[in-house]
Amino acid sequence: MRHARWRLAALAVPVLASAPAAVAQTAPSIDARTWRPSTDPEAALALEPVTTPGPWRWNVAAWTYYAEDAVILRDPTSGDVTGRPVERMIGADLVAGVGLGSRVAVGVDLPAFLWQEGTSPVPASGLGDVSLSAKATLVSNDHGGLRAGLGLAALGDVTLPTGDRSSFVGEGQVTSGLRLLAEYGLGPGALRASLGYAYRPASRPWPQPSAAGAAFGDAITWAVGVSLRPRAVLPVLDAGDRQTWEIAAHGSLPAGPVAPFGAKGAGSSLLSPAMLAVDDRIALGRSRDVYVLLGADVGLDQAVGAPLVRAVASLGWAPRAHDRDADGVPDDVDECPDLPQDRGGKEGCPNGDGP
Protein backbone atom coordinates (compact mmCIF):
# COMPACT_ATOMS: atom_id res chain seq x y z
CA MET A 1 0.00 0.00 0.00
CA ARG A 2 2.86 2.39 0.87
CA HIS A 3 4.50 1.79 -2.51
CA ALA A 4 1.18 2.41 -4.27
CA ARG A 5 0.84 5.77 -2.52
CA TRP A 6 4.31 6.82 -3.60
CA ARG A 7 3.53 5.84 -7.19
CA LEU A 8 0.32 7.94 -7.13
CA ALA A 9 2.20 10.90 -5.69
CA ALA A 10 4.87 10.58 -8.37
CA LEU A 11 2.19 10.61 -11.07
CA ALA A 12 0.44 13.62 -9.51
CA VAL A 13 3.56 15.82 -9.52
CA PRO A 14 3.88 16.19 -13.33
CA VAL A 15 0.12 16.55 -13.68
CA LEU A 16 0.00 19.40 -11.17
CA ALA A 17 3.10 20.98 -12.65
CA SER A 18 1.58 20.95 -16.12
CA ALA A 19 -1.79 22.39 -15.00
CA PRO A 20 -0.66 26.05 -14.87
CA ALA A 21 0.93 25.65 -18.30
CA ALA A 22 -2.31 24.24 -19.70
CA VAL A 23 -4.30 27.10 -18.20
CA ALA A 24 -1.81 29.59 -19.60
CA GLN A 25 -2.19 28.06 -23.05
CA THR A 26 -5.98 28.23 -23.07
CA ALA A 27 -6.31 31.65 -21.39
CA PRO A 28 -5.42 34.50 -23.76
CA SER A 29 -5.03 36.98 -20.87
CA ILE A 30 -5.71 39.89 -23.24
CA ASP A 31 -8.45 42.45 -23.53
CA ALA A 32 -9.38 42.25 -27.22
CA ARG A 33 -12.17 44.82 -27.00
CA THR A 34 -11.51 47.68 -29.37
CA TRP A 35 -14.02 50.05 -27.79
CA ARG A 36 -14.91 51.21 -24.30
CA PRO A 37 -17.59 53.74 -23.38
CA SER A 38 -16.60 57.12 -21.97
CA THR A 39 -17.77 58.20 -18.54
CA ASP A 40 -18.46 61.73 -19.82
CA PRO A 41 -22.24 62.41 -20.00
CA GLU A 42 -21.87 64.25 -23.34
CA ALA A 43 -19.68 61.60 -24.96
CA ALA A 44 -20.56 59.97 -28.25
CA LEU A 45 -19.53 56.50 -29.34
CA ALA A 46 -15.92 57.34 -30.24
CA LEU A 47 -15.16 60.86 -29.01
CA GLU A 48 -16.21 63.39 -26.38
CA PRO A 49 -15.99 67.15 -25.71
CA VAL A 50 -12.93 68.67 -24.03
CA THR A 51 -15.06 70.25 -21.30
CA THR A 52 -16.01 68.55 -18.02
CA PRO A 53 -19.45 68.50 -16.33
CA GLY A 54 -18.64 71.03 -13.60
CA PRO A 55 -18.25 70.97 -9.80
CA TRP A 56 -19.88 67.89 -8.24
CA ARG A 57 -22.14 67.30 -11.24
CA TRP A 58 -22.53 63.57 -11.49
CA ASN A 59 -23.87 61.15 -14.07
CA VAL A 60 -24.59 57.44 -14.50
CA ALA A 61 -25.23 55.38 -17.61
CA ALA A 62 -25.75 51.82 -18.78
CA TRP A 63 -24.30 50.72 -22.11
CA THR A 64 -25.03 47.51 -23.96
CA TYR A 65 -23.75 46.18 -27.25
CA TYR A 66 -23.87 43.24 -29.61
CA ALA A 67 -20.74 42.38 -31.63
CA GLU A 68 -20.58 40.05 -34.62
CA ASP A 69 -17.19 38.41 -35.27
CA ALA A 70 -15.84 40.08 -32.14
CA VAL A 71 -12.53 38.17 -32.15
CA ILE A 72 -11.50 36.55 -35.43
CA LEU A 73 -7.95 35.32 -35.91
CA ARG A 74 -6.42 35.46 -39.39
CA ASP A 75 -3.10 34.51 -40.85
CA PRO A 76 -1.13 37.79 -41.12
CA THR A 77 0.26 36.80 -44.53
CA SER A 78 -2.62 35.19 -46.38
CA GLY A 79 -5.51 36.74 -44.48
CA ASP A 80 -7.17 33.33 -44.16
CA VAL A 81 -9.30 32.72 -41.07
CA THR A 82 -7.50 30.42 -38.65
CA GLY A 83 -10.02 30.61 -35.82
CA ARG A 84 -13.16 32.32 -34.51
CA PRO A 85 -12.61 32.48 -30.74
CA VAL A 86 -15.56 34.86 -30.24
CA GLU A 87 -18.07 34.89 -33.08
CA ARG A 88 -20.87 36.64 -31.21
CA MET A 89 -20.91 38.63 -28.01
CA ILE A 90 -23.36 40.64 -25.93
CA GLY A 91 -21.73 42.95 -23.42
CA ALA A 92 -22.68 45.69 -20.98
CA ASP A 93 -20.93 48.51 -19.13
CA LEU A 94 -22.10 50.47 -16.10
CA VAL A 95 -20.36 53.84 -15.94
CA ALA A 96 -20.45 56.74 -13.50
CA GLY A 97 -18.66 60.07 -13.35
CA VAL A 98 -18.44 63.23 -11.30
CA GLY A 99 -16.89 66.64 -11.86
CA LEU A 100 -14.20 67.92 -9.50
CA GLY A 101 -14.01 71.67 -9.93
CA SER A 102 -14.67 73.30 -13.26
CA ARG A 103 -11.92 71.52 -15.25
CA VAL A 104 -11.48 68.01 -13.79
CA ALA A 105 -13.69 64.94 -13.76
CA VAL A 106 -13.23 61.31 -12.69
CA GLY A 107 -15.16 58.19 -13.61
CA VAL A 108 -15.42 54.41 -13.33
CA ASP A 109 -16.44 51.75 -15.85
CA LEU A 110 -17.66 48.31 -14.72
CA PRO A 111 -17.69 46.02 -17.81
CA ALA A 112 -19.29 42.60 -18.19
CA PHE A 113 -19.96 40.15 -20.99
CA LEU A 114 -23.47 38.73 -20.74
CA TRP A 115 -23.16 36.08 -23.43
CA GLN A 116 -20.60 34.99 -25.97
CA GLU A 117 -19.84 32.00 -28.15
CA GLY A 118 -17.10 30.91 -30.51
CA THR A 119 -14.94 28.05 -31.68
CA SER A 120 -12.71 28.37 -28.62
CA PRO A 121 -13.85 27.22 -25.17
CA VAL A 122 -14.63 30.72 -23.89
CA PRO A 123 -16.83 31.35 -20.83
CA ALA A 124 -20.42 32.31 -21.59
CA SER A 125 -20.58 35.22 -19.14
CA GLY A 126 -18.46 37.06 -16.63
CA LEU A 127 -16.78 40.32 -15.68
CA GLY A 128 -14.20 42.42 -17.48
CA ASP A 129 -11.39 44.62 -16.17
CA VAL A 130 -12.63 47.62 -14.18
CA SER A 131 -11.41 50.97 -15.53
CA LEU A 132 -10.78 54.14 -13.52
CA SER A 133 -10.49 57.34 -15.55
CA ALA A 134 -9.71 61.03 -15.14
CA LYS A 135 -10.10 64.00 -17.46
CA ALA A 136 -8.61 67.47 -17.24
CA THR A 137 -9.50 70.41 -19.48
CA LEU A 138 -6.25 72.11 -20.47
CA VAL A 139 -7.70 74.74 -22.81
CA SER A 140 -11.43 75.38 -22.56
CA ASN A 141 -13.47 76.42 -25.60
CA ASP A 142 -16.64 77.02 -23.58
CA HIS A 143 -17.50 80.71 -23.93
CA GLY A 144 -20.54 81.32 -21.75
CA GLY A 145 -22.26 78.17 -22.97
CA LEU A 146 -21.17 78.53 -26.59
CA ARG A 147 -18.39 76.13 -27.54
CA ALA A 148 -16.25 77.76 -30.19
CA GLY A 149 -12.61 77.66 -31.15
CA LEU A 150 -9.84 75.33 -30.03
CA GLY A 151 -10.01 73.28 -26.86
CA LEU A 152 -7.63 70.69 -25.40
CA ALA A 153 -8.00 68.03 -22.72
CA ALA A 154 -5.91 65.21 -21.24
CA LEU A 155 -7.51 61.86 -20.44
CA GLY A 156 -5.95 59.09 -18.39
CA ASP A 157 -7.14 55.65 -17.33
CA VAL A 158 -6.03 52.65 -15.31
CA THR A 159 -7.53 49.16 -15.60
CA LEU A 160 -7.53 46.62 -12.77
CA PRO A 161 -7.27 42.84 -13.36
CA THR A 162 -10.81 41.98 -12.27
CA GLY A 163 -11.86 40.24 -15.48
CA ASP A 164 -11.90 36.62 -16.57
CA ARG A 165 -8.51 36.02 -18.20
CA SER A 166 -9.94 33.40 -20.59
CA SER A 167 -12.69 35.69 -21.89
CA PHE A 168 -10.75 38.21 -24.05
CA VAL A 169 -11.85 41.02 -21.70
CA GLY A 170 -9.27 40.46 -18.97
CA GLU A 171 -5.57 41.33 -18.98
CA GLY A 172 -4.51 39.69 -15.74
CA GLN A 173 -2.41 42.79 -15.02
CA VAL A 174 -2.75 46.50 -14.32
CA THR A 175 -2.66 48.59 -17.50
CA SER A 176 -2.73 52.34 -18.08
CA GLY A 177 -3.24 54.86 -20.83
CA LEU A 178 -2.96 58.56 -21.59
CA ARG A 179 -4.62 60.51 -24.42
CA LEU A 180 -4.67 64.07 -25.67
CA LEU A 181 -8.05 65.24 -26.98
CA ALA A 182 -8.38 68.23 -29.30
CA GLU A 183 -11.66 69.89 -30.30
CA TYR A 184 -12.49 72.80 -32.55
CA GLY A 185 -15.94 74.02 -31.65
CA LEU A 186 -18.22 75.45 -34.31
CA GLY A 187 -21.26 76.26 -32.16
CA PRO A 188 -23.72 73.48 -33.07
CA GLY A 189 -20.90 71.26 -34.31
CA ALA A 190 -17.31 70.30 -33.54
CA LEU A 191 -14.27 68.69 -35.10
CA ARG A 192 -12.55 66.29 -32.67
CA ALA A 193 -9.42 64.14 -32.62
CA SER A 194 -7.47 62.19 -30.02
CA LEU A 195 -4.06 60.54 -29.85
CA GLY A 196 -2.79 58.42 -27.00
CA TYR A 197 -0.60 55.64 -25.67
CA ALA A 198 -1.86 52.46 -23.96
CA TYR A 199 0.70 50.69 -21.76
CA ARG A 200 0.80 46.96 -21.01
CA PRO A 201 3.56 46.09 -18.49
CA ALA A 202 3.93 42.59 -19.95
CA SER A 203 3.25 41.73 -23.59
CA ARG A 204 1.20 38.61 -24.30
CA PRO A 205 1.73 36.34 -27.32
CA TRP A 206 -1.57 34.93 -28.56
CA PRO A 207 -2.15 32.36 -29.77
CA GLN A 208 0.99 30.59 -28.69
CA PRO A 209 4.01 31.88 -30.67
CA SER A 210 3.43 30.84 -34.27
CA ALA A 211 3.29 32.23 -37.77
CA ALA A 212 -0.36 33.11 -37.23
CA GLY A 213 0.13 34.76 -33.87
CA ALA A 214 1.08 38.18 -32.57
CA ALA A 215 2.48 39.72 -29.40
CA PHE A 216 -0.07 41.98 -27.71
CA GLY A 217 1.77 44.84 -26.04
CA ASP A 218 1.67 48.63 -25.94
CA ALA A 219 -0.52 50.48 -28.44
CA ILE A 220 -0.94 53.90 -29.99
CA THR A 221 -4.62 54.84 -29.88
CA TRP A 222 -6.24 57.33 -32.25
CA ALA A 223 -9.62 58.76 -33.22
CA VAL A 224 -10.90 61.53 -35.47
CA GLY A 225 -14.46 62.63 -36.12
CA VAL A 226 -17.13 65.29 -36.33
CA SER A 227 -20.24 65.95 -34.23
CA LEU A 228 -23.25 67.98 -35.32
CA ARG A 229 -26.63 68.99 -33.99
CA PRO A 230 -28.86 68.39 -37.03
CA ARG A 231 -31.22 71.27 -36.20
CA ALA A 232 -28.49 73.67 -37.24
CA VAL A 233 -28.47 72.22 -40.76
CA LEU A 234 -32.10 71.30 -41.29
CA PRO A 235 -34.51 72.21 -38.45
CA VAL A 236 -37.17 69.78 -39.66
CA LEU A 237 -34.85 66.90 -38.72
CA ASP A 238 -34.86 67.88 -35.06
CA ALA A 239 -37.39 70.58 -34.23
CA GLY A 240 -36.77 70.19 -30.49
CA ASP A 241 -32.96 70.46 -30.80
CA ARG A 242 -32.49 67.22 -28.88
CA GLN A 243 -30.09 65.28 -31.07
CA THR A 244 -26.34 65.22 -31.63
CA TRP A 245 -24.89 63.15 -34.45
CA GLU A 246 -21.36 61.79 -34.68
CA ILE A 247 -19.35 60.08 -37.37
CA ALA A 248 -15.81 59.07 -36.46
CA ALA A 249 -12.99 56.69 -37.29
CA HIS A 250 -10.99 55.18 -34.44
CA GLY A 251 -8.53 52.41 -33.71
CA SER A 252 -4.99 51.66 -32.60
CA LEU A 253 -1.52 50.71 -33.82
CA PRO A 254 0.98 48.41 -32.09
CA ALA A 255 3.78 50.21 -30.25
CA GLY A 256 5.67 47.29 -28.71
CA PRO A 257 7.05 44.70 -28.97
CA VAL A 258 5.58 44.80 -32.49
CA ALA A 259 6.04 48.08 -34.37
CA PRO A 260 3.38 49.71 -36.58
CA PHE A 261 3.10 48.82 -40.26
CA GLY A 262 5.26 45.69 -39.90
CA ALA A 263 8.44 47.66 -39.21
CA LYS A 264 9.40 45.29 -36.39
CA GLY A 265 7.97 41.90 -35.54
CA ALA A 266 5.34 39.75 -37.23
CA GLY A 267 1.61 40.18 -36.92
CA SER A 268 1.31 43.98 -36.94
CA SER A 269 -1.72 43.71 -39.24
CA LEU A 270 -3.49 41.71 -36.52
CA LEU A 271 -2.81 44.48 -34.00
CA SER A 272 -4.00 47.50 -36.01
CA PRO A 273 -7.81 47.57 -35.67
CA ALA A 274 -9.67 50.41 -37.39
CA MET A 275 -13.41 51.07 -37.03
CA LEU A 276 -15.99 53.53 -38.29
CA ALA A 277 -18.56 54.73 -35.74
CA VAL A 278 -21.91 56.40 -36.45
CA ASP A 279 -24.26 57.37 -33.63
CA ASP A 280 -27.09 59.63 -32.50
CA ARG A 281 -27.41 61.02 -28.96
CA ILE A 282 -30.98 62.06 -28.04
CA ALA A 283 -31.98 64.07 -24.97
CA LEU A 284 -35.29 63.00 -23.41
CA GLY A 285 -37.93 64.65 -21.27
CA ARG A 286 -38.59 68.30 -20.53
CA SER A 287 -35.47 68.66 -18.39
CA ARG A 288 -33.30 66.67 -20.85
CA ASP A 289 -31.45 65.09 -17.95
CA VAL A 290 -32.06 61.63 -19.44
CA TYR A 291 -30.54 60.66 -22.75
CA VAL A 292 -30.17 57.68 -25.04
CA LEU A 293 -27.47 56.92 -27.57
CA LEU A 294 -27.91 54.58 -30.52
CA GLY A 295 -25.03 53.73 -32.80
CA ALA A 296 -23.01 51.21 -34.73
CA ASP A 297 -19.32 50.44 -35.12
CA VAL A 298 -18.08 48.74 -38.30
CA GLY A 299 -14.67 47.13 -38.67
CA LEU A 300 -12.57 48.56 -41.49
CA ASP A 301 -9.87 45.87 -41.46
CA GLN A 302 -9.22 42.30 -40.34
CA ALA A 303 -7.36 42.96 -37.10
CA VAL A 304 -8.10 41.07 -33.89
CA GLY A 305 -11.03 42.76 -32.14
CA ALA A 306 -12.26 44.72 -35.17
CA PRO A 307 -15.85 43.46 -35.40
CA LEU A 308 -17.83 42.91 -38.54
CA VAL A 309 -20.41 45.13 -36.84
CA ARG A 310 -21.06 46.28 -33.28
CA ALA A 311 -24.48 47.69 -32.39
CA VAL A 312 -24.48 49.93 -29.31
CA ALA A 313 -27.24 51.43 -27.16
CA SER A 314 -27.03 53.36 -23.91
CA LEU A 315 -29.30 55.05 -21.41
CA GLY A 316 -27.92 57.75 -19.13
CA TRP A 317 -28.94 60.26 -16.51
CA ALA A 318 -27.05 63.50 -15.85
CA PRO A 319 -29.04 65.92 -13.63
CA ARG A 320 -28.07 69.53 -14.36
CA ALA A 321 -29.01 73.17 -13.83
CA HIS A 322 -31.12 73.83 -16.92
CA ASP A 323 -29.58 77.02 -18.25
CA ARG A 324 -26.84 75.95 -20.68
CA ASP A 325 -25.78 79.48 -21.66
CA ALA A 326 -26.08 80.86 -18.09
CA ASP A 327 -28.16 83.88 -19.16
CA GLY A 328 -30.91 83.45 -16.56
CA VAL A 329 -33.48 82.11 -19.07
CA PRO A 330 -34.37 78.41 -18.51
CA ASP A 331 -33.56 76.17 -21.45
CA ASP A 332 -37.17 75.06 -21.95
CA VAL A 333 -38.23 78.64 -22.82
CA ASP A 334 -34.88 79.90 -24.14
CA GLU A 335 -35.12 80.27 -27.92
CA CYS A 336 -31.31 80.37 -28.10
CA PRO A 337 -30.15 77.96 -25.35
CA ASP A 338 -26.50 78.10 -26.45
CA LEU A 339 -26.30 81.87 -27.02
CA PRO A 340 -26.49 84.03 -23.88
CA GLN A 341 -28.95 86.91 -23.80
CA ASP A 342 -27.40 90.38 -23.80
CA ARG A 343 -28.79 93.83 -23.08
CA GLY A 344 -31.90 94.39 -25.18
CA GLY A 345 -32.38 90.72 -25.93
CA LYS A 346 -35.57 88.79 -25.26
CA GLU A 347 -36.54 85.13 -24.89
CA GLY A 348 -32.88 84.36 -24.18
CA CYS A 349 -31.48 85.47 -27.54
CA PRO A 350 -28.90 88.20 -28.20
CA ASN A 351 -30.38 91.51 -29.36
CA GLY A 352 -33.84 90.01 -29.44
CA ASP A 353 -33.06 87.87 -32.50
CA GLY A 354 -34.82 84.59 -32.96
CA PRO A 355 -33.15 81.16 -33.05
Question: Could you give the topology of this structure?
Answer:
Elements: H1 2-26, E1 58-74, E2 81-100, E3 104-117, E4 126-127, E5 130-139, E6 142-143, E7 146-160, E8 175-186, E9 189-199, E10 204-206, E11 214-216, E12 218-228, E13 243-256, E14 274-284, E15 290-299, E16 309-317
Antiparallel strand pairs: 1-2, 1-16, 2-3, 3-4, 3-5, 5-7, 6-7, 7-8, 8-9, 9-12, 10-11, 12-13, 13-14, 14-15, 15-16
Plain-language structure description:
The chain is mainly β and 355 residues long. Helices cover 7% and strands 46% of the residues. It has one helix and 16 strands. A twelve-stranded antiparallel β-barrel has the order 1-2-3-5-7-8-9-12-13-14-15-16. The protein has a two-stranded antiparallel sheet with strand order 10-11. A hairpin with a 7-residue loop joins strand 10 and strand 11. It starts with a helix and ends in a 38-residue tail after the last strand.
